[in-house]
Task: inverse folding
């Protein structure tokens, strides 16, 4: 078996004499990607937010949440690889796991870094041919989507209320907004800015997207905002296509086409 040597997306070195046989995933979108790659028996543990594939919630060990996973449960699984995310998992808690297994920490903030994650997973899991195929298919899907997004919509993507919060230009959500034809009003800010609705009224957004996660916006939230923004198109949207990386953008492109149809 070939010797595998690489760095994770925080530039920390990893090396394997053989592909990992016991994997713990702390990231729902990476769990989804492992299944997409055809990895099953090697996956020993997942979080309770890892809902795809649904059958894994029955036959894999649940090690807690993405923010409060249980060290002792993970250690008991004797993993040789733990897959984590800089964005989703607490730094101190994640690094505490380094005494039990090698940890690959992803840092996906745009399509380029997502392609790099897929490339790295392909090397580690010996799925490099599958990675190349996925990358090629995703590029074709993106090209077909871009043909539909010639009109750009001045948009706000809401992730929280009280305080109201949106997304900045250094996030993966921003990248996916751009891909779907939404021009992020807060693209010149960083991370997740707190915003003032009165100030936003002065900007006259064309579209407001109310995400299903992390705050689960409902129809009542949409109706309340519609009174403040009577000339704005307000949509309740699934947060997963905007936030899940790895192989999930393959499905996200189809979802974005549906959103464009709603706007037109």
Result:
């Amino acid at each position: 078996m070939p010797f595998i040597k690489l760095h994770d997306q925080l530039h920390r070195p990893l090396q394997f004499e053989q592909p990992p046989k016991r994997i713990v995933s702390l990231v729902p979108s990476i769990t989804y990607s492992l299944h997409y790659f055809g990895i099953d028996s090697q996956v020993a543990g997942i979080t309770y937010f890892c809902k795809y594939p649904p059958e894994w919630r029955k036959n894999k060990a649940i090690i807690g949440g993405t923010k409060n996973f249980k060290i002792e449960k993970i250690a008991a699984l004797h993993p040789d690889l733990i897959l984590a995310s800089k964005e989703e998992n607490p730094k101190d808690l994640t690094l505490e796991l380094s005494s039990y297994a090698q940890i690959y920490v992803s840092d996906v903030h745009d399509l380029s870094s997502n392609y790099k994650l897929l490339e790295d997973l392909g090397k580690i899991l010996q799925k490099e041919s599958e990675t190349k195929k996925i990358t090629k298919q995703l590029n074709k899907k993106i090209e077909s989507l871009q043909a539909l997004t010639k009109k750009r919509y001045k948009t706000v993507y809401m992730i929280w209320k009280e305080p109201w919060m949106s997304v900045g230009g250094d996030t993966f959500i921003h990248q996916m907004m751009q891909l779907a034809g939404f021009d992020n009003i807060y693209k010149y800010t960083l991370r997740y800015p707190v915003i003032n609705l009165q100030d936003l009224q002065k900007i006259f957004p064309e579209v407001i997207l109310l995400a299903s996660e992390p705050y689960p916006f409902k129809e009542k939230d949409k109706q309340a905002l519609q009174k403040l923004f009577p000339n704005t198109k307000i949509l309740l949207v699934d947060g997963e296509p905007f936030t899940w990386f790895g192989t999930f953008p393959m499905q996200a492109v189809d979802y974005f086409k549906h959103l464009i149809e709603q706007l037109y």
